[in-house]
Amino acid sequence: MKDPLLSLRGLRVWFKVGDGLFRRKRDLRAVDGVDLELGVGEALGIVGESGCGKSTLARAILRLLPATSGQVVWLGRAIEAESVAGMRPLRRDMQIIFQDPLASLDPRLTVGEIVAEPLRVHAPQMSAAERRSAVTQMLQRVGLPADVINRYPHEFSGGQCQRIGIARAMVLRPKLLVCDEPVSALDVSIQAQIVNLLQDLKRDFGMSILFVSHNLAVVRNLCDRVIVLYLGKPVEIAPTRLLYEAPAHPYTRGLLDAVPIPDPELQPQRLGTALGGELPSPLAPPSGCVFRTRCPKAIPGCARQEPQMKTFAGLRQVACLRHGEDERPGGGG
Ligand code: SF4
């Protein structure tokens, strides 16, 4: 990839978790060694079940959570150890929208004040009239009438609140928009509208998108590539079409078997059923391949050896000891 916007090198985010009153603390490996590049204008989906480290990864990229080790490289500059002051000028180019649209908006501020807030912080040279004009334009661009600026968040539906959140994130024209389960709390018909809006904004403004979701159906419509996480580790990275038409990792196949039903409440439960078994605790991940306790293709060697990400046909990366067996002489299963 030529001059990526963002690169991750061996990124880890571990938390110390107490285990009883006198026992020593243990490491919860929320993100455990992610290597990744995100191109300028590329939309990348981050998928996996709840507890797989998707949101932690997104927050660590934005430096909202500290990295335990590894590198976050933004436009060629390592930022994982950057101070709060050092991050401030970069923040205008890295914006986020959240899962719960209403909770993410300050109820004491009008919509106009909410959307204008990033401009006050990052573009203090703008006059009040310029700010108002920029806010009004962006609200209209996300499908809201200009007269909403004097109203408060509680007066709006979930979908409208998410549009306000998107307007707030986009008013600075960021280079990267991180979307953390942005449609999970919305009705299915509204989900499609918000995804269409994000597609339109990406086309018009050319920003890169990191789209976190447990719902692969949503990711398919928006993203160019997808990274699949399991217990904080990437197990497959592939162009979206390839991943959906020919999933390579058994976990990706399990996720796709659970797709889709148009019910955001039931979808996470279906994922568990289709995959079989429970997600192991990240405090005590299985030895070898972390997916082996739920994998229909597991063999004894999977408990001894941790699979590394390998590139196949120059297109996709897969972390599975058995991937490609069929193509090898004498391979099976
Ligand atoms: S390495 Fe073994 S357990 Fe892991 S995904 Fe591959 S076959 Fe399954």
Write the layout of secondary structure elements.
Elements: E1 6-17, E2 26-38, E3 43-47, H1 54-61, E4 69-74, E5 77-78, H2 84-91, E6 94-97, H3 111-122, H4 128-141, H5 158-170, E7 176-180, H6 188-205, E8 208-213, H7 216-222, E9 225-230, E10 233-239, H8 240-245, H9 250-257, H10 267-275, E11 310-312, E12 316-318
Parallel strand pairs: 3-8, 3-9, 6-7, 7-8
Antiparallel strand pairs: 1-2, 1-4, 4-5, 9-10, 10-12, 11-12
Bound molecules: iron/sulfur cluster.
CATH architecture of the largest domain: 3-Layer(aba) Sandwich
Count of the domains: 2
Number of helices: 10
CATH class of the largest domain: Alpha Beta
What distance separates the N and C termini? 33 Å
Proportion of helical residues: 25-40%
Assign the structural class, choosing from mainly alpha, mainly beta, alpha/beta, alpha+beta, or little secondary structure. alpha/beta
Order of helices and strands: EEEHEEHEHHHEHEHEEHHHEE
**What would CATH call the homologous superfamily of the largest domain?**
P-loop containing nucleotide triphosphate hydrolases
User: How would a textbook summarize the main sheet?
Assistant: 8 strands, mixed
What would you call the shape?
A: globular
How many E strands?
Answer: 12
In terms of DSSP E residues, the strand content is 15-25%
Mean pLDDT reading: 90
What ligands are attached or bound here? iron/sulfur cluster
Question: Key terms for this structure?
Answer:
333 residues; alpha/beta; Rossmann fold; 2 domains; eight-stranded mixed beta sheet; four-stranded antiparallel beta sheet; 10 helices; 12 strands; 31% helix; 22% strand; globular; binds iron/sulfur cluster
